[in-house]
Amino acid sequence: MSIAENYRRLREEIPDHVTIVLAAKTRTAAEVSEAIEAGATDVGHNYVQEAESMHDELGNLASRVRWHMIGHLQKNKINKVLPVVDTIQTVDSIVAAEAIDKRVEAAGKSTVDILIEINSGGEVSKSGLGADYDAVEQVARGVATLPHLRLCGLMTMGPFLDDPEDMRPYFRTTKGIFERLREKMIPRTNIQTLSMGMSDSYRVAIEEGGTMVRLGTIVFGPRSYA
């Protein structure tokens, strides 16, 4: 099936309240353009340079979608990414949030949406806050004081496991933190987005309460790193 057919099939399968973010790492502008023409509304990038290049290549088409940073954001890349993205999904500390907040106005924006990244598997090789509610709330309350950021929810990767069913406990843990945080109704936040699940695990993630999934291979086909 074509990229367009894959996207339309997934959009019919996945509930309307769940946002599909195209995971565009290593993909070409032509591939992403086909998905946008098929109805895609959100594009995610792991690397700032790839996001910049694709945004430029897509031209007017770029304005038809929301852009997400879904990879770890280094401090020295913040100035480059802010003019391109609408949402940064990988904030994992108040220090990181403050660094972004200081640069938003210079990028010509009033606010940027962010998600707090949860390292639900507790993996030392991955960034993100540990799955500790008190620590997450502390960061959330800190973010809420920053004038140029709007906290919209949480994101998690979860560990890479052969059986997607084995990821269910990690998604469930993140959903529990999400619900507790949302119930706090912290001023100047809009806790509505729970980003979790990728091509191999999105069904389980949605069953566990995910409202956003990040899909690459299942839309575009296997990656080529040549």
- CATH overall fold name: TIM Barrel
- CATH architecture, by name, is Alpha-Beta Barrel
**DSSP summary, beta strand count:** 9
Counting helices, strands and paired strands, the structural category is: alpha/beta
- Main β-sheet: number of strands, strand sense, barrel status? 9 strands, parallel
Strand content: 15-25%
- Uncertain regions spanning at least 5 consecutive residues: none
Report the principal-axis shape. globular
CATH class, named Alpha Beta
**Rg (CA only):** 17 Å
* Helix count, DSSP H or I runs of 4 or more residues: 9
Number of domains: 1
CATH superfamily: Alanine racemase
Helix content: 25-40%
Mean pLDDT: 95
Order of helices and strands: HEHEHEHEHEEHEHEHEH
For the record, give the distance between the C-alpha atoms at the N and C termini, rounded to a whole number: 23 Å
Tell me what the structure shows.
With 226 residues, the chain is of the alpha/beta class. The chain has one domain: Alanine racemase (TIM Barrel, Alpha-Beta Barrel). Helix content is 36%, strand content 21%. Strands 1, 2, 3, 4, 5, 6, 7, 8 and 9 form a nine-stranded parallel β-sheet that branches. The longest helix is centred in the C-terminal third of the chain and has 17 residues, at 168-184. The radius of gyration is 17 Å and the shape is globular. The model has no long low-confidence stretch (mean pLDDT 95).
Which key terms come to mind for this protein?
226 residues, 9 strands, TIM Barrel, nine-stranded parallel sheet
Task: Please provide a brief summary of the model.
By secondary structure, the protein is an alpha/beta fold.
